[in-house]
Amino acid sequence: MMELLSTSYEQNQELIPYRKGDKWGFCTPDKKIVITPKYDVAWKFTEGLALVKLNGKWGFIDKNDKEIVPPKYDNARSFSEGLAQVELNGKWGFIDKTGKEIVTPKYDYAYDFQEGLARVELNRKYGFIDKTGKVIVPPKYDDVFPFSEGLAQVELNGKEFYIKIFPDGKVVEYYDE
Description:
It is a single chain. This protein has no helices and 19 strands. The protein has strands at 16-20, 23-27, 33-39, 41-46, 49-54, 57-61, 67-73, 75-76, 84-88, 91-95, 101-107, 109-114, 117-122, 125-129, 135-141, 143-144, 151-156, 159-165, 171-174. The strands form five sheets. The protein has a four-stranded antiparallel beta sheet, with no helix packed on it. Strands 8-9-10-11 form a four-stranded antiparallel beta sheet, with no helix packed on it.
């Protein structure tokens, strides 16, 4: 039997998703229940918030089980670099940790942020946006991979090559015909 902690929980303490029957909650590493299992799905805490599903919708809670982002999204992903991907009516965008929509859901898919940029898909083409939603690389590539050490591998018309974004915003493609 697991012990239920009734006090508020330290935000810096580890909580682990815990399943009881078909519901999910959270417990300490020594299996003391901190958040009673009541969620349909619960993901681990990332950047201080956990992604949870309740009644078919996704939202985020803190370590005291306070709804920071009420479950209202059709789908979502954990926070990365301060923003989380959310899906509403078949389109993806981003919210911040208060639930404010930073990028209105308008993309066919949006990937997590890496090195300050997120890959986005629109009409089967891929590009990159920054954390304000500004399009940095328009969706024109057939495929893109995340930026790593300032470079991203892309594919266009069957050819793979790299791109780099310079501080002035100029995007350079590294290939020759």
